[in-house]
Each structure stands twice: as C-alpha cells, then as structure tokens.
Amino acid sequence: MLLLSGATAGVANAVNAPANAYCYIGWPNDGQVLAAGKPFRVWFGLRHMGVAPKGVRFENTGHHHLLINTELPPAGQPIPSDRNHLHYGAGETETMIELPPGKHTLQLLMGDENHVPHTPPVMSKRITVTVK
Q: Domain-by-domain residue ranges, the chain?
C-alpha cells in the first residue's frame, strides 16, 4: 500500500519514505580534485529503498536527482529540471558530468514518480569537489 501525506492548495502530495532510507554519493569523494576539461563519473548509492523510473508508482521507490551548486528545492514541490537539477528518471544509478574549473557542490535527492521529494526527504550529504 502506498501512503500519501496530505496536500495543501498548490502543493503536490509527497510520498512517504521509510524513516531509515538514505542516499549517498559513492564517487567522487568529498574534497576530491578532478581534472578540468573531461567528464567524470558520479556514482549514486541508496539504502532501504528501491529505484524505479519516473511515472512508475511502487511503494518505497523513487529515482535520483543530482543537485549541482544549489540548495534543496522547497518541500512538497516537484524538483526543477535545469542545469542545477539533473533528473535520472530512467532509474540510472550513475552518470558522467563535466563541470567548469572551480569549486562545486553535489547532492542527491530522491523524488517520487512525479519528481516530488519524499517525506521525509531522502537525500545525501552535500559534498564539495574542485575542478582544476
């Protein structure tokens, strides 16, 4: 059975997540220095939940969103889709990205079948990488 939290006007229903669920960035590591001018792999980890593609409603699942140089989006709202909010709606668990030289933050956030963060949010720690 899929449980939904209540919604207010203009706010999407947020799907409940297991209280012990969490995601993490397996690579790169916090503080990693990466070479400029070439893509690098970002590996997504998830515990106590499963991965399902966008549009698929299945209990205790969601799909990854990679947040780059941005804060978490507002609770109960669909995660934006832009250069700072990358969606992995096919159920991907890794990606290749290229960033310009400088310091960058990366964070994972799980979204439900409609790209809305779960309640409570299932997110990784924010890490910082430097591209040189």
A: 22-131
